[in-house]
Amino acid sequence: MNSRPIIAPAASQQLALTDLQPGVSARVVAVAASHADAPQELSKRLAELGFLPGELVRIVARGWLAREPLAVRVGTGTFALRRFEAACVRVCPEPALTA
Amino acid sequence: MDGPSGVQASPLVALVGNPNCGKTALFNLLTGSRQKVANYAGVTVERKEGLLVTPAGRRVRILDLPGAYSLDALTPDEHVTADIVFGRRGGERRPDFFVCVTDATNLRQNLRLVLALKRLGLPMVVALNMSDVARRKGFAIDPQRLAAELGVPVVETVGVRPGGVRELVAVLDKLSLSAGSAAAGAGEPAQQTPDDVERDHDEVRRILRVVGGERNDGLVFSDRVDAIVLHPVLGPLILAVILFLVFQAVFAWAQLPMDAIKNGVQLFGQWIGALLPDSLFKDLLVNGILAGVGSVLVFLPQIMILFFFILILEDSGYLPRAAFLLDRVMGSVGLSGRAFIPLLSSFACAIPGIMATRTIQNPRDRLATIMIAPLMTCSARLPVYALIIGAFIPQRSVLGGLQLQGLVLFALYVAGVLSAMAVAFLLKRRGPGAQFQSLLLELPAYHWPNLRNLAIGLWQRVEIFLMRVGTIILALMVILWALSSFPAPPPGATGPAIQYSIAGRLGSALAVIFAPIGFNWQISIALVPGLAAREVAVGALGTVYALSATGSNISDALTPLIAQSWSLPTALSLLAWYVFAPQCISTLATVRRETNSWKYPLLMAAYLFALAYGGAFMTYRIALALA
After folding, report:
1. In CATH, what is the architecture of B4-211?
2. Measured between beta carbons, which residues in chain B are less than 8 angstroms from residue A66?
3. Is this complex's ipTM strictly greater than 0.90?
4. Do B435 and A37 touch (CB under 8 A)?
5. Please, what CATH class does the domain formed by A13-97 belong to?
6. Residues from chain B contacting residue A4 (CB–CB below 8 Å)
């Protein structure tokens, strides 16, 4: 489980972290600014927190109204993100690892 | 004893690491300090220094630094760390040696910073902290192999156990450290790109595969707790119940010890009264000091109960969850979700709360959070609330078992929070705010609160409270007593002597300003020393009423006295006043320092005064109309 995927998943399987179902494990494909106005340093900070290609992520909980914030488990840590932050993370679900 | 120059010449060792990996716990163990430790990111926001004397008798200066996710700082607290690591902080030497602290249960996240530090070519050791928890959770990390892979010595540490730093101390003892040895170390690399971070992470993954710090955990304990605690419906419900219980307990549990303290003070006063002949000194002791200090001291149990709960919430890891649950509320008034923890700290005292805003990246967000921090009801206001509630709100159950007094207290705290939200909303509406308020808040693994930490934390609060009572409050009481006793009344005067004194005259003058909101001259006097520390207002009322009482009821406790002499609208008006409580001077000084400008503390004092006066005026008038 530690090796990075050699072949990039098909684009059709990719989705934004905001669209991932809670409880479903997924692998990070890429991290990029979701919005032209989003702060420049955001995608780098996400990488520094561990949102890096190949890492496993799972939504632990999600706010009620407006479906934010999101509590996201990444690697061995958990972070609370707002939607615009989570939207920067593209993921690919891993059905086999779904808890 | 070495002079300061002797300490300066000792080697300087800095603790660096990700937020919440236990640096401050290690620092406390190494230096015997008692810096605040809690289970959330961003407890330490400033450099702290202590001295370690190793078994070999060597003196080492230890520096505790705020946690940082990377050396490319984003927030003011991370800048403190980066500036020191790169040796670009004015007037400060670059550390000679680094202890890179890691959370052994979260190496996948923590090792990237180790690699970044190692690249700087600075002498360092890696501390595998929380190694006991890691072992219990089944992380089988071999320190020797990790050291071999990293090319840096590795030691295991346990920050919460006495003796948990023995190995680390041994390493520091053996090092050939001398002051200034790293000053010539590598300079400052260019900012990392996300690709660099990715490359570092590939290396981390490789190392972890070799040393075995990996474990494929599906749902861990914290996830299972979070499924309930962060649940969209259950979560807010649990939060409400917890907060509610706290305020109920503050009144329900405190009665017995409070009565004991009150009786003790009274007995002592009577004993002194009988022992000493009538004199000015006796008057100072009984009416000035005992009446004033005693009336503040009574509230120690309530403050302890409040902090007991705050410490448990901090230690368990629940606080960032509360921030998660309330993030939408914060967002709706344009505040960053990161503002939650600084604001929550302000319930203890606004000063650490304002310091904690250093974890907020956006300067406008940070400023807005600083400006509303004093609206969170600090613990110094608790004695004022408790005094008035105790005197005017009947002790009875409502809504099936809930105490009315606790409910009123809860309502006062809520009033502070709601007005803070309103002020934040207005502040953020002016001018172009950032469109995106960042959250990016770490939700740490839950821990059972450490009993030793809890006891130490609670004892510290007792010490702080007693220190305040014994120093600033005592001093102000003596001054107030003097101002209230001199000059002596003219011969043939009828009213109590205090009316003719400096304080009495001042109170009468101030009462003209405060009469429209229902404050009498005694309250008006008490507000003045209340600027230095809010709970002094209670002590001041104690002294003023003791001095203005005539004849036999001198030793009466403050509560029945004010219950007799104030109207209910006056009491409610004073409660409303203290929701906004125009400022304690130390808070204003902190704002001056953190914003580096006089503009914001002055603005803060002005807006709080206006709110307090307006709030008290409305409360008084409405209560009068309804009465």
Report:
1. 3-Layer(aba) Sandwich (3.40)
2. 328
3. no
4. yes
5. mainly beta
6. 202, 205
